Amino acid sequence: MEKVENLLNYVKVPSRADKVYKDECVYTFDTPESKEGLFVDMANFIGVSKDMLDLHYQKSGSPVYLHMKRTKIPVAKDANLEPEPKVTRLAIGMEGGFDPSSKVKYTYEDRNSVFLMPDRTNIELPCPSLPQKIQDAIVGILAAETASFKAEVEATEWNGEQRIVSKYAHDLVQLDNGVKIPPSGWQCEKCDLTNNLWLNLTDGSILCGRKFFDGSGGNGHAVDYYSQKGYPLAVKLGTITPDGKADVYSYPEDDMVEDPFLVKHLSHFGINVSTLEKTEKSMAELEVTLNQRFGEWSTIQESGAKLQPLYGPGYTGLQNLGNSCYMNSVLQVFFSIPDFQKKYFANGISSAMDNFRNSTIDPSGDFNAQTSKIAFGLLSGRYSEPPEEEVEDQDEAQPGIRPLMYKNLIGKGHPEFSTKRQQDAQEFLLHMINLIERHSRGSKNPSDCFKFKTEDRLECSQSNRVRYTERDEYCLPLTVPMDLLTNREEVEEYKKKELEAKSRNEKLEMEPVRPHFTMMSLLQSFTQPEIIHQFYSSAINAKTTAYKTTRFATFPDYLAIQLRKFALTDDWRPYKLDISVAVPDVLDISFLRGSGLKPGEQELPSDVQVPEFVYDATIMQSLMEMGFPVEGCKRSIYFTENKGIEPAAMWAMEHMGDADFDKPFVIPGTEKKNADVFVPNEEAIAMIEAMGFSRAQACVALKSTDNNTERAADWIFSHPEEVSNADSSVPAPNEVTYRDGAGKYELFAFISHMGTSTSCGHYVCHVKKDGRWVIFNDNKVALSEHPPIELGYLYFFKRI
């Protein structure tokens, strides 16, 4: 033990503040259950796989490791197993939620040892002769919460949807009418329904809920009662759990809400929540069920067929971390593209090793290193080997990799992607492109394969003079005008029959008819001129209207197209367009090529005198309180001419999906010809300067975070070297290069969304590999039999 005694300076007992990476290697996805186990650095608590041990030792100099090896032992089918834990809420991987591992099929045997580098001495445990400090460190490491668990706690829990606290909950009036509610045997007071019942928290009345779109549900008596009485809150009976959680609906707020005083409100009617059990599906669970019944879910996931699982390099799935299917789908597309493979996985592991060598001792916070880890996990085939014997559970046969470390890293500081809520795959696509660009300075940026330059042509309606401006884009958004329907008669006939069935309170016994479009018609629609109001024309020095057309100035190597399937109802509620689109295997967009200034065209004068516009402070404050970004508020107020909060809010709701909605607002007609020059958000600069930083430093941070104030502040503290080198008021733009070529493309991937909005549902990815379509449904990877191309949300084409 003398040798061990000489190494005690390299051993530390972990404190509560230390991050202990004992569940997964920080370089690869090996775990203690992997063939060679996991080696935990007893000085820095970094977990590494055996093939990364030499690299980590060279970087850290740490010679003492706890070698953790766990062996999984199948449990006999007739073994006396404990019952599965009861699910009390809609959550995944969290206490009380759905736990995919809750079925006890295995027991585990742990064999730990102390491993010494560089001579690879192995000391089996237990070993009473080990120095006490090492024994204490071992106990501390084994007992410590993992770094991933701590990161999970920091993230927002997912409970199906984020709900606000109702403003009616605190001072809710409850009538002393002597009503007491029994623990069971409920029935609607207006009809004979015994499910989908809602208890009004003001007077204790029990009434049925709304009818669902498939004809099931209630008769709407609870809604009718609210219109008569105006009592605001109701709780769905059967969803109340012993911890005081339930579905609560606010009629005046027209949404599901939180009632922090629910236990008290229920006790008013004699209900003791500790004796209740959840017996009905929550509204979030019902939405999933109804969508599955509607057909979209089963079609997109190809759940009607027994699909052939695929294994090997490029066929590794990603586990769904609560609600990360949007991330999983985008990553599968990225790492199907050679540009990303070369950057993060060239020649097998070589580029990944370069990124690991260039990272710190703890690479868990290094973007390039962790992206290389994802590439290794997906492309090496190491985590996609067929089971030695046939298993019934596909989750067990294809466990995939668990990208928790990566999700926490790329979401850090972001108001949406740092949470466990469902997010929009298109927004995440752009977020990833932004991160990759930021971390590719001085090296090749693989996301340039998506980048293209657009040409905006503005023509003054009075002078007929024109201005051409250019800007960078990475994704082409296409709206879906309903006047481009190809099956209008069938859709109208179905709607007619549906209304007739509803009038008879019957369920329509026929398959729904989806509105159908063609991709080419949507692209043709994209070419149509857009009318720009309040355009400031430098030719007449006054406001007028202009006509805007957009074309491609360059064609990218890979073209990403988003179908804008999400819209707003008349009362501003978001909904999804349930449509299908005919997408060709080969797409020719050559007709979208811009031409620049044409012979005979006269340019608008460039010496624009920017007109003064004063934004109404009251309207601005009201819009910001609604959650709209500052630049979006400016746009809303400008285009509604300071006429009031209602028209401004309406404009904001209609245009919040615009690509430039939260970008720095420039009055139409005063744009600079070179739109690539970065324009910092002045309000954000003022806020960062108030923190003690210079304008130059604020501009550098804002440019690196796409003008996001919160992320910019975090970026400053995490990039001290770049901040200290900021020496100009506005950072110079990076040299911009564009790949250009023919406009003929072939479809190679698409991402589909299931659900009623981007804040809920599920994403699935299909990628064409070796001439065949492959479905990536989180960790499940299989040969696709019927790829639902017509139901896609994001489409990816590669140049032919």
Automatic annotation (TrEMBL):
EC number(s) in its UniProt entry?
3.4.19.12
Any keyword Magnesium?
Answer: no
Catalytic reaction annotation: Thiol-dependent hydrolysis of ester, thioester, amide, peptide and isopeptide bonds formed by the C-terminal Gly of ubiquitin (a 76-residue protein attached to proteins as an intracellular targeting signal)
Q: Which InterPro entries does the UniProt entry name for this protein? A: Papain-like_cys_pep_sf, Peptidase_C19_UCH, Ub_carboxyl-term_hydrolase, UBA, UBA-like_sf, Ubiquitinyl_hydrolase, UBP13_Znf-UBP_var, USP
- Gene3D superfamilies per the record? Cysteine proteinases, DNA helicase RuvA subunit, C-terminal domain, Zinc/RING finger domain, C3HC4 (zinc finger)
> Transmembrane ranges?
none
EC main class here is hydrolase
Q: Which GO terms describe its biological process?
A: protein deubiquitination; proteolysis
Q: Which organism is it from?
A: Artemia franciscana
Active-site residues (renumbered): 325, 762
Residue numbers binding substrate: 198, 210-213, 249, 251, 254
Q: Give the record's keywords alphabetically.
A: Coiled coil, Hydrolase, Metal-binding, Protease, Repeat, Thiol protease, Ubl conjugation pathway, Zinc, Zinc-finger
Query: What family classification does the UniProt entry report for this protein?
Result: Belongs to the peptidase C19 family.
Q: Where is the UBP-type domain?
A: 164-273
Binding of Zn(2+) occurs at 188, 191, 208, 221
One Gene Ontology term of the molecular function aspect:
zinc ion binding
Full protein name:
Ubiquitin carboxyl-terminal hydrolase
